């Protein structure tokens, strides 16, 4: 069974508090989501394997380490996941980027797929799925199912704010996937929005409401 990891670095907690604030405008919200994604992926990649190499320094030869193992792909769930892409690419510039388009039907809260484009060699990569919000967990679980259908089995999920129900749903559907979150909130309201949450992440990122 994979684990849910709560990333509670003080900088993350501070920045999450700022995006929760309804008075934080679109520009600042976008910048903060980017920074949060960067701080989160720093922790998410902590177990990356290393290999020893030899490097000529200006002084002598050094035996030193570089990243080894699988290459990385990142998969934002449209739209809101897009806000996390730049922050992750700042730290892993060689990552390929796939996209999964899902929206949540406002009546049924079921995820509806409208787009999926993954890197051609996705099954050879470690894939990091990005979405700021994990509410019912339906969108994340469906996104991971789509990725698995393409033969990918090395998947991590990164959400900024999660509900306990969302974490449980993903763990049940995909027990092999580690989930990384910066905050676990109280639960969901009647519209399946996270409480206290931050509202609609996509609308706040793109100024659509
Ligand atoms: O866990 P769930 O209950 O599935 O809800 C979470 C999903 O809802 C939001 O997307 P939304 O449907 O609002 O689409 P958007 O990013 O285009 O606004 C969010 O970014 C997640 O993808
Ligand atoms: O709280 C929520 C739930 C779903 N989608 C969001 O953007 N926010
Ligand atoms: Mg939305």
TrEMBL record:
GO terms for biological process: UMP salvage; uracil salvage. Binds 1 Mg(2+) ion per subunit. The magnesium is bound as Mg-PRPP. Residues 7-208 form the Phosphoribosyltransferase domain. One of its GO terms (molecular function) is magnesium ion binding. Uracil binds at residues 194, 199-201. The keyword Transferase applies. Pfam families: UPRTase (PF14681). Pathway: Pyrimidine metabolism; UMP biosynthesis via salvage pathway; UMP from uracil: step 1/1. It comes from the Bacteria. GO terms for cellular component: cytoplasm. Allosterically activated by GTP. It catalyses: UMP + diphosphate = 5-phospho-alpha-D-ribose 1-diphosphate + uracil. SUPFAM superfamilies: PRTase-like (SSF53271). Keywords: Allosteric enzyme, Glycosyltransferase, GTP-binding, Magnesium, Nucleotide-binding, Transferase. It is an enzyme of class 2 (transferase). Its cofactor is Mg(2+). HAMAP family: Upp_B. Catalyzes the conversion of uracil and 5-phospho-alpha-D-ribose 1-diphosphate (PRPP) to UMP and diphosphate. Belongs to the UPRTase family. This is Uracil phosphoribosyltransferase. It comes from Christensenella massiliensis. The lineage of its organism: Bacteria, Bacillati, Bacillota, Clostridia, Christensenellales.
């Amino acid at each position: 069974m994979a684990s849910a990891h709560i990333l509670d670095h003080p900088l993350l907690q501070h920045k999450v508090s700022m995006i929760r604030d309804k008075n934080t405008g679109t520009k600042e919200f976008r910048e903060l989501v980017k920074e949060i994604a960067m701080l989160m992926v720093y922790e998410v990649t902590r177990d990356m394997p290393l290999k020893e190499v030899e490097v000529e320094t200006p002084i002598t030869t050094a035996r030193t380490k570089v990243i080894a193992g699988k290459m990385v792909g990142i998969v934002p769930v449209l739209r809101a996941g897009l806000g996390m892409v730049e922050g992750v690419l700042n730290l892993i510039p060689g990552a390929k980027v796939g996209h999964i388009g899902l929206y949540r039907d406002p009546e049924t809260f079921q995820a509806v797929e409208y787009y999926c484009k993954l890197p051609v060699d996705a099954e050879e990569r470690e894939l990091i799925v990005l979405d700021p919000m994990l509410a019912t967990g339906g969108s994340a679980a469906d996104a991971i199912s789509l990725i698995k259908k393409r033969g990918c089995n090395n998947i991590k999920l990164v959400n900024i704010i999660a509900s306990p129900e969302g974490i449980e749903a993903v763990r049940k559907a995909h027990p092999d996937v580690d989930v990384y979150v910066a905050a676990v909130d109280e639960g969901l309201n009647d519209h399946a929005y996270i409480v206290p949450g931050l509202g609609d992440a996509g609308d706040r990122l793109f100024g659509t409401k």
